Fold this protein.
Amino acid sequence: MSVYLIRRLLQTVALLFLLSIVLFALVNVAPGGPLAGHGQSRHVRPERAAILMRQFGLDKPLPVQYVIWLAGNDWMRVDADGDGIADSYGTRKGILRGDFGFSFRTRQPVLAEIGQRLANTIYLMAVTMLVALVIAIPIGIISALRQYSATDIALTTFSFAGQAIPEFWLGLVLLLIFYAWLKNPFTGEPLLPPGGMYTLGAEFALLDRIKHLILPVATGALGWIAWYSRFLRSSMLDVIHQDYLRTARAKGLSERRVVYRHALRNAVIPLVTVLALDLPYLIGGTVFVETIFAWPGMGRLYYQSALQRDYPMLLAILIIGAAAIIISNLLADVAYAYLDPRIRYN
Amino acid sequence: MSQTAGTATLTPGAPARVTATSGRTAVWRRFRRHPGAIAGAAVLGLITLAVLLAPLSPYDPEASDLSVRFQPPSWQHPMGTDALGRDLMTRVLYGGRVSLTVGVLVVAISLVIGVPIGALAGFYGGRVDSILMRLTDIFLSLPAFLVLILLSAILREVDAPLFERNNVLTIGLVIGVLSWMTFARLVRAAFLTLRETDFVTAARCAGASNRRLIVTHILPNAIGPIIVEATLGLGYAIIEESGLSFLGFGIQPPTPSWGNLLSNAQEYLTKYPWLAIFPGMMIFLTIISANYIGDGLRDAFDPHKVLKKVGEV
């Protein structure tokens, strides 16, 4: 197991390294170059542009730029004032030391900006996932236990529909119903707020927070409910016909105990793996929900940065996203091996 | 397994009767037994037909008529009219041409990239396999939708001949380049098992070249899962195109697509909700149809599962 782990870790590092090259190249070969979205004016004088290029180190060959981006430039002389003479040491530490540079858009350090947004996204996604699982697990169990019954067919149809509804449309329809059409009978105000994390300017109130969560969570959770309930249904069906369950019944255990203690335990293992694989969506899967409901998270940050071509920010979010995917793949494998003693890696 | 498949009809008490029918007929017969798949095929067929017949509409999809702006759905305008007085149904149908074309294009591109990669990796194994699969891993580790946003945000500014301002071709290409990996993995897995089978060994002994083994002997036997995945892929591609266009990075107005129609509708959501309801409904119906067809095909190509479903195994 530990040999396997070490090998996987090495592969992970190699893969991350390759990905960083791919993503860096992607952003830097963009037409207009990384300066295209820098500053509001599109008509910067050529001599001014040349100075900017030198200041940002964009006049150097791409491989050199990549190394600087990766490892910083505080060990080499750079041309800080853009006059063509490299006369001082650089200040960048490089992403290996956690320096993702400054946002073109806000001129703040990229990481500082991402930190707060990431927390907001994780908050939203944690609630969404929790709600999704609490609803999906019973649906999956009931569907599997009553395979091909009317209940199962209804639930399966529901999950087919849930998987096919585009998130961005669902969000709009929910807004229409709960913000535009339904009113609070006492105050005449819209039943639910149209967006944001809380009422601006108001003091902290739990009810207010919850009200702001309902629509984004409902929009985000439906697809997950559909997917997890279908998934659990099929893994439950795989387990249900196995011999060890017949043995459990034969020795006189109650049906309840057989289902919840013996069957569910094994059926949940693949679900845990899938859950781990889905974790990266914490980073990027929320673009629609966050833009529709003005939720100040990573997804919306990425969207805004893409609109204004804020390359340092985009690159940072992409790298974090890719790292999240690779690490959660690793986690899923490890969790699988840990939960299912039949699996051995050599 | 290769050219013919036997179908077993089992009646309690009667001896099993096995009839040999051609594989294709058997698949079709099993597909027809899946009510969801048939309904899906019917709905998708209808949508395709309506979209093809879009030019028969009496309205121009792009000419505005401010005297009839924001008309609610009526007999003249079954889906109402938009902010510029354009007939929404006409625009939805033309938008459907765009969305469906992008979907088909994406599937075609992913097949063209994914199938050869998977076939070569699975057939040759060893070095070829590990290089091609590392490449696949890299693509799988990209946060696909974010990269999609980045690429289309960049390409939005490009005015190359054929690819000007995120037209159907650009968007199809960009999504396709990011969605071939499932096909590569699928085809590789199929090739890994098939290359060890007796009929392949027999063909090899008969002097078939590697190329012939791959193209005429192994690939046709891996076609089932490829078709299933292609159907589901059509659905994903349409969701991704409409998502991109919804955010403003995809197909650019005035060319309508289901996504950018929805995007425009956002602004008028509370006052003129039909603008949002109809395009979204079309996306939903298309995706759910594609998913049901895919589900039906999966069962049809995997007779064991169907028999299990009917309780015969």
Observations:
- Chain A has a mean pLDDT of 84.
